[in-house]
């Protein structure tokens, strides 16, 4: 054993002497050139190539580094033996990541990618206008040379897309409002945001199940339709018009759409916007994967149907640009053409994967230009509560299924609910008020539906009586009209005869 250590010491001495001799004989430039040529020869014969993705690119943060870190978190939580665990601000979930100097193997369409999280100590700097972290972090990507073109063209875009999905799922959704109109804050943003915590989902939404399934399929096709929209040359956006009586769940529908897709909501208040340019500015500051909402659009600004004649201005030319109340004092205002360009013009293409949702209680008041396909692609009628929707409300508020309610009571509910024409909001209020006593809640609801049905029938009977009386008066006028018509004809004949006599006399 002693001879081994003696030989090793002699070998280390020879190695140190040779290193000193090389440094003394060969200048640094020559040594660097030889090392560079050796690396090129090694890379020439190697079947792999390497890519370094550093955390900081110069003085800016490298977004690709953050994307790779998020993307690898899904695999690191399963395959990694040592992982880092983080939770970002406004995040509802934990994020896993590769630990320092740990590696992971990923597969994409049959291609293998080797990732390594490289962490080294940063050399101390004498002066820096921006303090840098003590550790230098980055990812090293190792792939085969034959896969280089495919990886650069498809794989990295896939990594960024999946990272955005993970970030959106982990983060709390936000609700934006333009309370300042189009003015910017200190950061240059015209929108103010608050966390969006609305609990409405398609499972809890009181709506006909067939219509609900159709809408969910349409939303999923839109979210997964990037290739389709690019192939057809259409802007990646879609418009929905929700119309119907108040209290039928239009706002709850918007919340369910946002929770289903994981999109943020921009609640656009048109009365706070003064000009078309401010409207365009607001659109440019919205993000992709968002829902832009204009609620009660018929009440926000004057966008009435231009096809309807106006009795007060029947001899005036109807202007195609309807202005809001802000224009009455002589200032600028939003025009209909500006809103149309906002939803389906060149300005609507400044982003991607956006959904426009308009709500109204009176669809007949809206201009047809707003309703056509391309602006409002899908019209959804939010009707009064039907029996399938009623069963959903009973399940949500009372936890009662069909088997938990007496058969005769359930049958009577089915008979009266369509004729009563109560909104889901009214029915929900009855159930909430009596939710501590489930049996009483169901009976109270049945009584309320009966009363509402009787009231509807009474109103209908009054309308029928008025129509009958109107028809009888119309018949009386018709019977009296021949006599009046005969007298009128006789007077006309006498007048013509007198006129002919005057002509002959002259």
Automatic annotation (TrEMBL):
Signal peptide: 1-24
Cofactor: Mg(2+)
SUPFAM superfamilies: P-loop containing nucleoside triphosphate hydrolases
Superkingdom in the source lineage: Eukaryota
Keywords: Magnesium, Signal
Protein's GO biological process: response to stress
SMART domains from the UniProt entry: AAA (SM00382)
Biased composition (Basic and acidic residues): 474-486
Gene Ontology molecular-function annotations: ATP binding; ATP hydrolysis activity
Region of interest (Disordered), residue spans: 466-492
InterPro entries cross-referenced by the UniProt entry: AAA+_ATPase, AAA_N_dom, At3g28540-like_C, ATPase_AAA_core, Mitochondrial_chaperone_BCS1, P-loop_NTPase
Assigned protein family: Belongs to the AAA ATPase family. BCS1 subfamily.
Protein name: AAA+ ATPase domain-containing protein
The species this protein was found in: Aquilegia coerulea
């Amino acid at each position: 054993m002693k001879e081994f250590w003696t030989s090793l010491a002699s070998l280390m001495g020879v190695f140190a002497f040779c290193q000193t001799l090389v440094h003394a004989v060969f200048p640094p430039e020559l040594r660097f050139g030889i090392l560079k040529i050796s690396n090129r020869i090694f890379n020439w014969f190697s079947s792999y190539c390497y890519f370094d993705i550093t955390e900081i690119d110069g003085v800016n943060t490298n977004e690709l580094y953050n994307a790779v870190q998020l993307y690898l978190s899904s695999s690191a939580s399963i395959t990694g033996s040592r992982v880092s665990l983080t939770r970002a601000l406004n995040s509802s979930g934990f994020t896993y990541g590769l630990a320092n100097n740990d590696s992971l193997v990923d597969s994409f369409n049959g291609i293998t990618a080797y990732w390594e999280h490289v962490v080294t100590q940063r050399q101390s700097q004498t002066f820096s206008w921006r303090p840098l972290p003590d550790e230098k972090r980055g990812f090293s990507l190792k792939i085969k040379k034959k896969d280089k073109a495919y990886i650069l063209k498809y794989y990295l875009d896939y990594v960024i897309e999946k990272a955005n999905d993970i970030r959106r799922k982990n983060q709390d959704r936000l609700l934006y409002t333009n309370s300042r109109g189009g003015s910017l804050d200190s950061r240059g943003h015209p929108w103010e945001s608050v966390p969006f915590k609305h609990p409405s989902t398609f499972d809890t939404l009181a709506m006909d199940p067939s219509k609900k399934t159709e809408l969910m399929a349409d939303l999923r096709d839109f979210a997964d339709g990037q290739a389709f929209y690019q192939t057809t040359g259409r802007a990646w956006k879609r418009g929905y018009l929700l119309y119907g009586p108040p209290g039928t769940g239009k706002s709850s529908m918007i919340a369910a759409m946002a929770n289903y897709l994981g999109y943020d909501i921009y609640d656009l208040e048109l009365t706070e916007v003064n000009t078309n340019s401010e409207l365009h500015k607001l659109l440019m500051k919205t993000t992709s994967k968002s829902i832009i909402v204009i609620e009660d659009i018929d009440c926000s600004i004057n966008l009435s149907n231009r096809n309807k004649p106006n009795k007060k201005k029947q001899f005036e030319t109807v202007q195609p640009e309807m202005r809001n109340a802000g224009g009455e004092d002589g200032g600028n205002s939003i025009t209909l053409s500006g809103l149309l360009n906002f939803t389906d013009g060149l300005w609507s293409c400044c982003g991607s994967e956006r959904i426009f949702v308009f709500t109204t209680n009176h669809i007949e008041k809206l201009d047809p230009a707003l309703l056509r396909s391309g602006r409002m692609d899908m019209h959804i009628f939010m009707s009064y509560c039907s029996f399938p929707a009623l069963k959903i409300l009973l399940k949500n508020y009372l936890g009662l299924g069909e088997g938990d309610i007496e058969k005769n009571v359930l049958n009577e509910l089915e008979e009266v609910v369509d004729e009563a024409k109560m909104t889901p909001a009214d029915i929900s209020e009855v159930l909430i008020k009596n939710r501590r006593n489930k049996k009483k809640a169901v009976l109270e609801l049945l009584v309320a539906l009966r009363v509402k049905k009787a009231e509807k029938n009474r109103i209908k009977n009054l309308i029928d009586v008025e129509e009958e009386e109107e028809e009888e008066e119309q018949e009386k006028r018709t019977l009296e009209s021949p006599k009046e018509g005969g007298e009128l004809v006789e007077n006309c004949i006498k007048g013509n005869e007198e006129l002919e006599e005057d002509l002959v006399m002259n």
